[in-house]
Amino acid sequence: MFKHIKVVTALILVLAIFAVLQIASSGLFFNALKGDRQNFMLTQQIQREQVQLNAAWVALLQARNTLNRAGIRYMLDANNAGSGSTVSELVAQANQQLETADKSFAAYHHELPDEVKNMAYLVAVDEKYKVLHDALTELVQLLGAGNLKGFVDQPTQGYQNDFEGTYNTWVQTTSTLTAAGAEQNESAYQRALWIIGIVLLMLAGIVVLVWTGMKQLLLRPLKSTIEHIRYIAAGDLTQPIEAEGRNEMSQLAASLKHMQQALVRTVSDVRDG
Fold first, then answer.
1. Which residue from 132, 133, 129, 47 is spatially nearest to 95, judged by alpha carbons?
2. Are residues 228 and 157 both part of a single domain?
3. Which of 63, 128, 240, 272 lies in disulfide reach of 166, CB 3.0 to 4.6 Å?
4. Confidence of residue 220 (pLDDT cuts 50, 70, 90)
5. Integer CA distances (angstroms), 193 to 23, 152, 185, 247, in order
6. pLDDT tens, 115-124?
7. Phi-psi region of 240 (alpha: psi -120 to 50; beta: other; left: phi over 0)
């Protein structure tokens, strides 16, 4: 079989196999890296969202706490027992905290991709945030109007609990997404290890096959040809030369055989002459 395969053809075939193997492995690794990049970007995006939403939530809690202090101070002032920050100062502080919450929530909303903003758990966060923010703003107005009864009667805790519930749902959902991304990365890593192992095995098999082919196609015929050249150089024209096949080494052997036969005829002519 090897006698009919040209050396150039064999070399081109080997190069083609290595090229296909390289392209295939590169494509698989590219897909793995692409998946890793997407999961990394998703994780980074969720972290940015979480930072801003946490800041908004903390600012709302601070505003609620400040307003409670303002309500207590209002009652103490009514009994001429108040000390420390005044009601107006505490209300101003609460307003600043509400503004901070608005800025952080706007930054959180800016981080959200447009294609996910209509998802139910995100819409719930928006709605419950607005309800709680409006309720705290109303508390500021009630204190400003001196309506302590309205301040106390407002079901602010219920609004806060509702927002906390949607916030916890958001945390659980994003944690699930992050965990899924990490699991995909781990699966991609395991696939990459398998790919590396398979590629190494294929390379080992190809190396063995190429070495076997080179021995049969090039090294053994070349060794035989060199031996015949040495025989001819030593004056031995009786060694049979096999010149079967169509590859380069067979053509070289055929040329050497032709030279041997020509030398035999020349020697015969000299003896007969």
1. 133
2. no
3. 128
4. confident
5. 17, 64, 12, 41
6. 888 889 999 9
7. beta
Q: Enter the DSSP assignment of 219.
A: I
Of 158, 180, 195, which residue is a domain's last? 195
Residues 111, 64 share a domain: yes
Calpha distance 43→59 (Å, rounded): 24
The answer on 154 and 140 residing in a single domain is yes
Looking at 171, 195, 219, which one is the last position of a domain? 195
Residue 15: which CATH number? 1.20.120.30
Looking at residue 235, its amino acid is G
**Residue range of the domain that includes 241:** 201-272
Q: Which residue blocks in 120-155 are alpha helix, DSSP H? A: 120-144, 148-153
Domain count, the chain: 2
In the block, which residue shows the tokens 């193997």? Answer: 21
Name the burial class of residue 148, with classes exposed (0-12), middle (13-18) and buried (19+) by CB atoms within 10 angstroms of its CB: middle
Q: Which pair of structure tokens corresponds to residue 1?
A: 């079989």
**255 shares a domain with 217:** yes
Is the pLDDT at 82 greater than 70, yes or no?
Answer: no
State the burial class of residue 204 (Cβ atoms within 10 Å of its Cβ: 0-12, 13-18, 19+): exposed
pTM tops 0.85: no
- Mapped onto helix, strand or coil, the DSSP state of residue 58 is helix
Same domain, 161 and 207: no
- Asked whether residue 22 falls in the same domain as residue 131, the answer is yes
Shared domain check, 228 and 188: no
CB 125 within 8 A of CB 167: yes
What's 98's DSSP letter? H
